[in-house]
Specification:
The protein is an alpha+beta fold. Helices cover 65% and strands 8% of the residues.
Length: 745
């Protein structure tokens, strides 16, 4: 053991010199860090309120272009609120009650940006006469509408004996902002105290336990402060603060845990505090650097999906992980240099309850696993593969108000709306038609009618509506004559059905808007013969399909990029061909198993009541990509720390089995503790409000738990045994590069 330490001290590379510099300038680094923290803390508090986009707009897609054309050419407002009125025992179709509602909205309709307030014309479902909805159209885009929402809400008052619930785009986004703030506070209140308790048990002293907490909180604060300035000129998803908090606390605390633990080891064997800090950076600091790169690679995979949601989460994740690595290798190292032996002060857990020597528990497990490696690989691998099987029936969807629990007004109003009115007619397929001549001309009418007949003949179409059908049964020539009447034309333009060279056709599907057959209907409508017309298929079902397609079409590129680059980085870090390949495959097992459980819970409803999950039957289309990108990187943390330690032992002894046992012995407790903290921090989001974050918390927590226990404790030692010295084989050029560096040192 002592000989190995002497050998390590002799290798004074860049990380050793960096650590030594952090000790030398420790007070300067500390002052700079504190000033940055105080400066950014002020802006960090304001960041959640700056984020006004859910990030799901498929910009540039056919559905997005169609909605913009409807707004610009027909005057269809893209921003609307739905006011859902209920009255126990009242018949809301009664003219008296309807007039009372209109009278109560007089103050609202006086606002200059309120275009209209009209009762929903969609036929209601049977048995819901006590519900009535009003659509409020706004002459505002999403961001301004969100800013004006409090003013709008203040002017909505139900008549006596009624209740009103405000839902629709701005209301849902406003509630998401509030839920995001609440979720961050709630997750911290659950996760941080438990993390502190675990750290106290691991280190035994209050000073050592507080340092990882400081790093985690500092990383989150600095990242949110930086994001505040980015959000001034860039539209970012309102889910970003949740991702930053989740990742920042988990990764920041984990990185600091490994550094503090290694520093306490080095204090026992190095000549002075300066060399202890330097060697801590040379070993744990270097591992943190490479594991940070692995996490960043996973996060960068989200950039392949062209949605603001993914790019925002990627941005927040990349910044917070980078900040965590930087803070750990600067601020924390300087604090360790200042504290020195005082890192062991303020004893909380008495020494008599803590073993002075490294426990042989993990060593015994490693040797036990290596006695029957084939059997364990088959049984454990088979069990994980079986857990992945629910993914075969995964049903993806794009949630809207469903991301919120029913306790939020916009979610409850949305549920009332769905129950009282036919969702197929509330959110139909919309087709924007452009003609060469004006739509009022007989030639244009003939082409639009022919196209409409073609649409009616498509399987899965329930009803087709257009300005032609609204005028009754007339020939093309008769319609052209009728439309010369300015009053008729004005009525059609007022109903947003046609204007100039643009007409709108509404297609009501037979199946629900999120049914797979409706997806097929959208695709078929887009493939129809256009006969000289410029056709754009949009509306709710098309919008949803474009989002899902944009995600699914990029999954192969995401997988290839993340796994390929991760392999290359680990190849250079471990100087081995098989170890990185094994790491990638092990990650896929833990990742697949966790996604299988997510499908069981969120799609099939297992334990949904226990976890307070209120929207089941599908999995959010965003989750597989997010969980893959985040978990793949984070799981590499433990692979890097474990294999790095095994590699140290192997370079010292040349014995594969012994180095595997020693590596697990020296990192087993630490990795388990770090994983438990990460599971607690990430898992605390299961008990928050936003459904996507619940699913993300469950998926990430399970993946890390499986990875740090079953995979690292059982599969890794078993495979290390089976592969033997082949674990360390590398091409000659890679080995020579490593040897030449060692000789120079």
């Amino acid at each position: 053991m002592r000989g190995m330490r002497v050998r390590e001290s002799a290798v004074k590379g860049k990380f050793w010199r960096w650590g030594y510099a952090m000790h030398r300038f420790r007070w300067l680094v500390l002052v700079i860090g504190v000033l940055l923290l105080l400066s950014f803390a002020f802006f960090a508090q304001q960041t959640p309120g700056m984020l006004k986009d859910n990030g799901f707009t498929p910009k540039g897609s056919e559905s997005d272009r169609g909605l913009i054309q409807m707004r610009d050419e027909l005057g269809v407002p893209l921003t609307m609120l739905n006011l859902v009125y209920t009255g126990a025992g009242l018949d809301m179709t009664d003219k008296v009650h309807q007039q009372a509602i209109l009278d109560s909205l007089s103050e609202l309709t006086k606002l200059p940006y309120v275009e209209s307030a009209k009762f929903v014309a969609t036929p209601r479902n049977e048995g819901h006469l006590d519900v009535l909805a009003v659509t409020v159209s706004l002459n505002l885009d999403t961001d301004p509408a969100l800013e004006k929402y409090p003013e709008l809400k203040e002017r909505v008052h139900p008549p006596t004996g009624m209740n009103v619930y405000v839902t629709g785009g701005p209301a849902i986004l406003h509630d998401m902002q509030e839920a995001s703030k609440h979720d961050i506070a709630k997750s911290e209140a659950i996760g941080l105290p438990i993390a502190l308790i675990v750290l106290l048990i691991v280190f035994g002293t209050l000073v050592a336990a507080l340092l990882p907490m400081i790093v985690g909180l500092m990383s989150v604060t600095l990242t949110l402060g930086i994001t505040y300035f980015i959000a001034q000129n860039q539209s970012l998803s309102n889910f970003l603060p949740n991702m930053v908090t989740m990742l920042g606390l988990a990764v920041g605390i984990d990185y600091a845990l490994f550094l503090v633990s290694r520093f306490r080891e080095e204090l026992k064997v190095q000549k002075n505090v300066a060399e202890a800090v330097a060697m801590t950076c040379q070993t744990a600091g270097k591992s943190i650097f490479f594991s940070g790169i692995a996490v960043l690679i996973g996060l960068l995979g989200m950039l392949f999906v062209d949605l603001t949601f993914f790019r925002s989460l990627c941005l927040g994740g990349v910044i917070v992980v980078s900040i965590s690595v930087i803070v750990a290798n600067t601020m924390l190292l300087s604090l360790l240099g200042i504290l020195g032996e005082r890192i062991n002060s303020l004893q909380v857990v008495p020494k008599r309850f803590r073993k002075q020597e490294t426990s042989r528990f993990w060593e015994r497990i490693a040797y036990a696993v290596m006695k029957r490696p084939v059997l364990l690989v088959v049984i454990v691998g088979g069990a994980l593969i079986y857990t992945m099987t629910p993914m075969g029936q995964i049903k993806l969807n794009v949630p809207n108000a469903e991301v919120l629990p029913p306790s939020y007004e916009s979610r409850y109003g949305s549920e009332l709306l769905k129950a009282a009115y036919d969702p197929r007619m509330m959110g139909p397929i919309q087709i924007v038609i452009h003609t060469e001549g004006e739509v009022w001309e007989e030639a244009s009418i003939r082409k639009i009618r022919a196209y409409g007949e073609q649409v009616k003949g498509v399987s899965g179409v329930k009803e087709v509506q257009s300005f032609i059908s609204s005028l009754g049964q007339h020939s093309d020539a008769e319609l052209a004559v009728m439309l010369r009447n300015s009053n008729v034309k004005a009525q059609i333009e007022g109903n947003k059905l046609a204007k100039g060279h643009t007409a709108l056709m509404v297609v009501v599907p037979e199946k629900d808007t999120d049914d797979p057959s409706t997806d097929g209907l959208v695709r078929e409508l887009r493939s129809l013969s256009k006969d000289g017309l410029d056709i754009v298929v949009t509306g709710g079902p098309a919008y949803r399909l474009d989002i899902i397609d944009r995600i699914q079409n990029e999954i192969p590129e995401v997988l290839t990029f993340v796994m390929g680059i991760t392999y290359i980085v680990l190849l250079l870090a471990f100087r081995s061909v098989l170890l990185p390949l094994k790491a990638v495959l092990m990650n896929m097992l833990s990742l697949g198993a966790s996604l299988g459980v997510v499908v069981l819970v969120f799609q099939h409803g297992y334990m949904a009541d226990l976890l307070h999950i209120t929207s089941i039957g599908y999995v959010s289309a965003t989750l597989p990509v997010i969980i893959f990108c985040v978990v793949f990187g984070i799981s590499m943390d433990y692979e890097v720390f474990l294999i790095s330690r095994i590699m140290e032992e192997y370079e010292a002894s040349g014995d594969n089995d012994k180095s595997t046992a020693e590596g697990l012995k020296k990192t087993g407790s630490l990795i388990t503790s770090a994983a438990f903290i990460l599971v607690v921090v990430v898992g605390s989001f299961i008990f928050t409000d936003i459904e996507i974050m619940k699913a993300l918390g469950l998926g990430l927590g399970l993946a890390v738990l499986i990875d740090a226990t079953i995979v690292r404790v059982m599969l890794v030692p078993a495979l290390m045994k089976l592969l033997g010295d082949a674990n360390w084989w590398a091409p000659k050029w890679l080995r020579m590069g490593s040897q030449s560096k060692a000789e120079k040192r």
